[in-house]
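Handout, section 3.2

Students often ask what a structure token actually looks like in practice. Rather than define it abstractly, here is a full record for Serine carboxypeptidase-like 7 isoform X2. The first block is the sequence as you would receive it.
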Amino acid sequence: MATPVFRWSVVFFFPVLLFLAVSSAAAASSWTVKYLPGFSGPLPFELETGYVGVGDSEEVQQFYYFVKSQGNPQTDPLMTWFTGGPGCSALSGLAFEVGPINFKVEPYNGSLPQLILNPLTWTKKASILFIDSPVGTGFSYSRTLKGSKKGDFGQVQQNHQFLRKWLLDHPQFLSNPFYVGGDSYTGIVVPPLTLAISEGNKDAVPVINLQGYILGNPVTVRKTNDNSRVPYAHRMNLIPTQLYELLRSNCKGEYENIEPDNMKCMKHVAAYKKCVSRINQWCITCPFCEDVSSAPNDDKFGRRRSLFNSSEEQLLLAPRVLPPPLLYCQEYKYFLSYYWANDCRVRKALHIREGTKGEWIRCQSRKDYQYDIMNSVPYHAKLSSKGYRSLIFSGDHDMMVPVINTAEWIESLNYPVVDNWRTWLGMDDQVLGYTTTFANNMTFATIKGGGHTPEYMPYESDVMFTRWIAGESL
């Protein structure tokens, strides 16, 4: 497959059409939400939900949550936060990762799960749009069969159109610094979307005050990302050096798409898989909670964890049956979110259109998703050449998108270093991670002990974001 640098024309060939599409209609509908079922009393922050119609005939209706900055919304940055998958609901960003609410972790008894405030929300420093993308994700839906098609370039085009339409409806934010943010699989989509916004500013309206982008544990070069899990497992002492050397010599760096006659490689990969079969790939120091994240006798939800024979989808899907009350498991909150988002009172409060969505699932199936972009590095290079700021961060205990792969593709850009690799500290002078800054406005930071998303180390993530978004050195 051609690298995406040769496919820019696919994304940017329609500036005039985009102008007409954006100008022809404003965002379809939006509502102020003052109360949420499960939360005691009025919300102490400003929440808006709504739909924006995108596509030639607005056949795709994208649902969003918008939280206005709790600092100074007139001047604080405006940003998006896209959740990965592809196909994981924006509720994950709102309630688990960087948003102002969390689920109260307590044994589920059949009543509505309760919500509590997140004291480390990023919305204290920025207004954030959480968008259900691609189509079919969360509460987003399509009015036509054609509109149900989804893929990398489809996400770029639809979210580009979404943002210009949303800003036409919210002109008070046009002057705010704008950042595109996301984690996990959105490392494939966010760079081309950011570039689309930049290129679209030449012809489309309104002009977006784009300043840069933020990516956490981003999938970037899909093939090398998957294969980097083996050397990462070796560096973290999950497999012995002898086995690693056998894997290297017999598999030649390819640990997934193994030639059928390479019996030695398959044998060593089987030994490797046995070593890591009960490791939590999202956070290798966190408990492995298979019983929480799967449901027996259910093909959609009951597939077991496996590094090579399962997709990210299987590890993210929420269960439909009551698991044991393993409250120490990160996945237990996902279980609670399933029952909360499928409650009719919640849907009414969020203003979900009746009849548009059946069962809410935190992460949709990816079987019909078109993987158009295999490598997003060329987009990073193009954005850096335009001077945009970027923050790339990695939890160093994430095995799904290993930090060594992220460091590798950043090094391939050959940017001059302006701030050498060093520790960055918390308020109590404890080491929170390591960082380096490059001449092309790119900052790379690790979060010590961090997992796949900011939810694993919320304090460290908040300190990092607070400093970077303010233009300060980590």
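Discussion prompt for tutorial groups: The two ends are 38 Å apart (CA to CA). How would you have guessed this from the sequence alone?
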